[in-house]
Design goal:
This protein is an all-alpha fold and 316 residues long. The protein has one domain: Na+/H+ antiporter like fold (Up-down Bundle), CATH 1.20.1530.20. It is 76% helix and 0% strand.
Length: 316
């Protein structure tokens, strides 16, 4: 499997400027839709009893990147370096925008879900570059020590990543909150449709990215599928486990499970396609394939667990 996954690295994804602009617009639009559900006044009590909020943020921003790092160093003989870096990048991204929709299906605490998405997205301007730099840097040092020359030179412009995250997530988030505040009537009508469109739009992003490389995607999908299946499963288990350790109620436990297992891998794709962050001469095939398939698979796994929980009554 190592050799097959390593063969992904030199794969060049054919992508032009027009396609890149389209993906940026889609991601910004999706984040605008997320912001429409954010009403600061409604989250006041989340801070008066912040236990669930703190546990959720800890699970998503600390535990998931840490566990991802442990996976890639423990199994470094099976997971090629660029695939591992793709996993670390996904773990560094904020929560996915469709997690709120999934929480509502799951009978979970939707208010907590929206709060966690809003906070993790707002903080991602800092946390995404920081987590990728910290855990990615530790991995690079580890792999260079234990498997010399296994990883190509990889230096990321953290400030450029910060700027990109702010423009694509921060600005739409601010505009969406202002739109919801000043135009509540319109917001109420369009919020639900945008949630459904978010799923479609992400799939469009992946199709745009791989439309000219479909044969390569099919050729290597089996190996990528195994990696992402395990990684996403551990992410969901991390959220559920941490929420259980801290003895949160069933609704909050379901929310934190979904929030930890649903990552904004669309942001990861946009970062990877930004030549100022990841120079074109780098062989990023492994990172691209893992990030793209993560975005598809977490929709499948998230909806699967959501519909399962929708049939299960909440336990006290």
């Amino acid at each position: 499997m190592y050799e097959s996954l390593s063969a992904l690295d030199p794969v060049k994804i054919n992508f032009n400027a027009a396609g890149m602009h389209t993906i940026n617009i889609i991601l910004a639009f999706v984040m605008f839709g997320v912001a429409l559900g954010i009403k600061p006044k409604e989250f006041a009590h989340l801070f008066t009893k912040p236990k669930a909020l703190i546990v959720g943020m800890t699970s998503q921003l600390i535990a998931l990147p840490l566990i991802t790092f442990l996976i890639v160093i423990i199994f470094y003989k099976f997971i090629p370096p660029m695939v591992a870096m793709g996993m670390i990048l996904v773990a560094a991204c904020p929560g996915g925008n469709i997690s709120n929709f999934m929480s509502s299906i799951s009978r979970a605490n939707t208010e907590l879900s929206v709060g966690l998405t809003a906070i993790s997205t707002s903080l991602s301007v800092f946390t995404t570059p920081a987590n990728f730099a910290i855990w990615g840097g530790l991995y690079v040092r580890y792999i260079n020590k234990h498997a010399a020359h296994a990883l190509q030179p990889l230096e990321i412009d953290k400030w450029q990543m910060f700027e990109t995250v702010f423009i694509l997530l921060g600005v739409p988030l601010i505009l969406g909150i202002l739109f919801a505040h000043f135009l509540p009537g319109i917001t109420k009508k369009i919020r639900k449709p945008i949630q459904y469109l978010s799923i479609v739009f992400f799939l469009v992003m992946v199709i745009l990215a791989f439309s000219q490389n479909f044969s390569l995607f099919i050729k290597y999908i089996f190996y990528v599928f195994i990696i992402v299946l395990i990684h996403n499963g551990l992410a969901l288990a991390t959220g559920y486990g941490i929420a259980s350790v801290f003895k949160l109620g069933d609704a909050n436990r379901r929310t934190i499970t979904i929030e930890t297992g649903i990552q904004n891998s669309g942001l990861g794709l946009v970062l990877l396609f930004n030549p100022k962050i990841f120079p074109p001469e780098l062989m990023l095939g492994g990172m691209l394939f893992v990030t793209a398939w993560w975005g598809i698979w977490h929709i499948i796994s998230g909806l699967g667990i959501s519909f399962y929980w929708s049939r299960k009554p909440l336990r006290n």
